[in-house]
């Protein structure tokens, strides 16, 4: 079952996704939670007793403090890599998932090595000694490969026509860059209001403009020093194009002069 915007707003008793702070979806038979890419301000989230296998939609929930995932279908601890950037996460309940395995101590050390900021894991307080031991002996985990479900995710929106929707495509690209930079992700309604008129008026093919849209949106969050860096890089790139154009013009003039001499 897919968690929808309508269900989220009903359970959270909220008017919009940005205002959702706490959400309890215990035992809702959920398998698709892609909607969380549009809920960046969630603080406390209960998803226990469902059929969730991927945590990638939670990667942008940077306000998340408590996450309850007991009894789901998480197969690998590598899914925890999606939670590494959540600097406020302090409570995680992951027990009774396939990824926990038979060796409880090894599992606990591996989780704490990946998420050393946790203060409570599976309803048990985390000690400083445990964290030190985990950093020394815990198994290092890597980011899981992108699944088919992740590739087809439409960020909790209707499945129809979103694959070819330029706005949806640009939003995913922008949020991907923002996530890598540790910046707050944009909800779709925010993206629409901030979206540059480049694609609305110029009518350029969206494959050529999605990168430009992402860059323009990111620039709104840059300070003066960072904008200066962008300015310098842009000038260097423009100079490369100018040099290339001048070289072509010189070659054409040389060819034209040769033809006239003949």
Description:
This protein is of the alpha/beta class. It is 43% helix and 6% strand. The chain has helices spanning 5-12, 104-114, 128-137, 148-152, 166-180, 188-194, 197-201, 206-219, 224-261; strands at 22-24, 44-46, 66-68, 91-93, 120-121, 124-125. Strands 1-2-3-4-5-6 form a six-stranded mixed sheet. A hairpin with a 2-residue loop joins strand 5 (120-121) and strand 6. It is globular and about 80 Å long. The protein starts with a helix and ends with a helix.
What distinguishing features does this structure have?
262 residues, six-stranded mixed beta sheet, 9 helices
Secondary-structure blueprint:
Elements: H1 5-12, E1 22-24, E2 44-46, E3 66-68, E4 91-93, H2 104-114, E5 120-121, E6 124-125, H3 128-137, H4 148-152, H5 166-180, H6 188-194, H7 197-201, H8 206-219, H9 224-261
Parallel strand pairs: 1-2, 2-3, 3-4, 4-5
Antiparallel strand pairs: 5-6
Helix pairs in contact: 2-3, 5-8
């Amino acid at each position: 079952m897919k968690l929808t915007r309508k269900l989220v707003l009903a359970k959270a008793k909220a008017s919009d996704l940005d205002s959702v702070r706490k959400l309890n979806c215990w035992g809702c038979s959920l398998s698709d939670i892609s909607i969380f890419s549009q809920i960046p301000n969630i603080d406390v989230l209960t998803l226990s007793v469902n059929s969730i296998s991927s945590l990638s939609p939670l990667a942008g929930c940077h306000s998340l403090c408590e996450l309850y995932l007991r009894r789901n279908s998480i197969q690998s601890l590598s899914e925890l890599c999606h939670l590494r950037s959540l600097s406020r996460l302090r409570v995680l309940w992951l027990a009774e998932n396939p990824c926990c395995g038979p060796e409880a101590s090894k599992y606990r050390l591996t989780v704490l090595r990946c998420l050393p900021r946790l203060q409570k894991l599976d309803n048990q307080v985390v000690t400083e000694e445990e964290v030190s031991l985990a950093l020394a002996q815990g198994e290092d985990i890597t980011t899981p490969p992108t699944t088919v479900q992740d590739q087809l995710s439409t960020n909790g929106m209707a499945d129809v026509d979103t694959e070819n929707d330029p706005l949806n495509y640009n939003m995913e690209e922008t949020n991907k860059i923002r996530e890598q930079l540790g910046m707050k992700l944009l909800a779709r309604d925010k993206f629409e209001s901030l979206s540059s008129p480049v694609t609305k008026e110029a009518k350029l093919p969206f494959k050529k403009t999605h990168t430009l849209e992402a860059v323009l949106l990111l620039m709104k969050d840059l300070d003066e020093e960072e904008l200066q860096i962008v300015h310098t890089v842009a000038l260097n790139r423009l100079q490369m194009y100018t040099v290339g154009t001048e070289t072509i013009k010189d070659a054409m003039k040389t060819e034209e002069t040769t033809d006239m001499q003949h």
